[in-house]
Amino acid sequence: MLVDKLELSLRPAECNMPPYPAKVITLASGEKLVVHQAKREDVPHLLEAVKPLTTVEKDFYDIVASRLYSELLGWYRYRVKDEYCLVGTINGEIAGIVNGRMITEQAGMSYHTIAIRQGLRIGAQLFAAKMEYHLDYLGQEEVWIVAESPNGFKRWMIEYELESRPEQWHELGGVPTYVLTKELWEKHKAAKCAGRRPVPDNLLATAQQMILPSTYPQIKGYMR
Amino acid sequence: MREVGIVGVGHTKFGTAGVPLVDMLAQAALEALDDAGIKTVAGHGVDQVFVSSMGAGFLNRQHGVASALVDTLNLRPAMAETIENGPASGASAIKLGYMAIASGMCDVVLVVGGELMRLISGWEATDFVATMLHPEAEYNYGLTLPSLAGMFTRLCMEKYGIEEKDLALVSVKNHQNAMHNPGAHIQLVPDLYAITEDEDAIIINPHVAEPLHVYDVCPVSDGAAALVLCSMEVAERFVKKPVKISGIGQATDTHAVAEREVPSDLLAVRLAAQQAYKMAGLTPQDIDVAELHDAFVILEIVESEEVGFFPRGEGHLAVRRGDTKIGGKIPINTSGGLKAKGHPLGATGVSQIVELTRQLRGEADGRQVQGAKNALAINFGGFGNNVVATILTREED
């Protein structure tokens, strides 16, 4: 992209965000889920992983995938301030993606959580990793969260006992906002957030390949 | 009494149905009618429809489900009733179907069981199921089925030396079986080490009601199953050779579990099974395959003892030896059981008989118990206060 003065004036001023240290989680299947932070230059590749889900109506995958796609694109093209993306991989294959952004030094905004592999609570673990990033590594006081699917509502709002704050506007629209405070995080972290660090070099190297899923359980018959 | 056989089976994929209750029931029913070769047009010959559902009124705001289903299936003017007997509703509906035919009142009965449970949260589903408990002695104190099962498990562990790993062994076995059942809700096999000993195990397999973990407890599922029953006298009308219902037993126990003489026993399971064996003229040693009600995996272990497969207190040793696996001494829950196949309450008892019918027909692809001739099902209501045992027999040519 040609970066001229006009383009520079369109780009947000970005804060320096400490990196999210990768971790590895043993799933119930015995497989290893490695969670690591994606770089901006990874986005075009990640978009390919998300794109097939943008037409899956079931469980609101279409809206979550479409919005995630546009948010990642916005980050890649410098139209969103202080966004980040964490990727979960199993044997190097992308199993789920989460993203969000810093609003202020004190508050974070959770965007989306998408699980490509299902039935192993990968979405739950990636969501927990996202909260860990905001509250333990970015040192924020709270994270603003909305749910776009009943599954999300059950997993986040109910399981984390999130604080209801409908007067607080979330960037994803007028749906009611809930908040994970530092206090609630400390209450639930031990039961919700798994994983160990550091990730062995070979596992991390495999994870960073971010192989595109060859099949999607949400799309019958799909083969990449 | 006339003899009764099963000539048609149907089963939806358990999990999240994504369709209204009656549509889901109709899917299973149409598959069963097709399997029997019955066309849903005038002259279909179905005299009676029984629908088992524990919570359609509460969960789906729909009553009179059997009447709605008969109309949807174009089976008018067949008689229709909805049956509620807690999680044993399915086996109760089959028992009533059996009685209707054995008495001579009906020749052909369609039994359909189903529940649509995933429209509400897990907590709401748990609370709904808990309404079966004694209102003053149990429910009002916050007891739920998982909490009772947790206490029951602890009691059995202390009394018989059952370990948490034994529970996980049952779970892994049933998940392995479910991988071969396209109708099962959960299609993954947990790794024994990962869910019991790994550093992350406490988070990926947390306690639900100590000592029970997530992988020791059935999921909340939508689903439906259906059977076509007929008098053996008219069985030649149908496509498939009938599997005979050779024994049925039912027994009840105290409503409040604390009032039981031996709270670690499941007396109603023992009595129901004894009745069914007597009616069938069989013993536990004659049974080749069984579906036992494992809403909590401890129940599979204790039921396997109460129905006479193993001495009391030794069911977990049989699990360790692999006796209950396919290929073992007495394969249990080849369908995946409630643990992995799922437990849509009203469907469960019917689903168990669908699986056993397939086993006796030799149609259980990938999970077939070779040469199975006699099969036993235990459908467990409340916390064992209303239990139905059913025995099926494949008759020789």
Characteristic key phrases:
heterodimer, A: 224 residues, alpha+beta, 8 strands, 21% strand, globular, B: 397 residues, alpha/beta, nine-stranded mixed β-sheet, 14 helices, 37% helix
Give Rg of chain B in angstroms: 20 Å
- Figure out the total of helices of chain B: 14
Class per helix and strand makeup of chain B: alpha/beta
Task: Provide the β-strand percentage band of chain B.
Answer: 15-25%
How many DSSP E strands of chain A?
8
Return the string of H and E elements of chain A: HEEHHEEEHEHEEHH
Biggest sheet: strand arrangement of chain A: 1-2-3-4-5-6-8-7
Distance between the amino and carboxyl termini of chain A: 29 Å
Q: Got a strand count of chain B?
A: 11
Kindly provide the radius of gyration of chain A, computed on alpha-carbon positions and rounded to a whole number of angstroms.
17 Å
User: Which sheet architecture does the biggest sheet of chain B show?
Assistant: 9 strands, mixed
Straight-line N-to-C gap of chain B = 22 Å
Taking the sheet with the most strands of chain A, its summary is: 8 strands, mixed
Give unreliable regions of chain B as ranges.
none
Pick out the low-confidence regions of chain A.
Answer: none
- Helix-strand sequence of chain B: EHEHHEHEHHHHHEEEEHEHHHHEE
Structural class of chain A: alpha+beta
The helix count of chain A comes to 7
Largest interface, chains and sizes: A-B, 19 and 23 residues
Q: Could you report the average pLDDT of chain B, rounded to the nearest whole number?
A: 96
| Shape call of chain A | globular
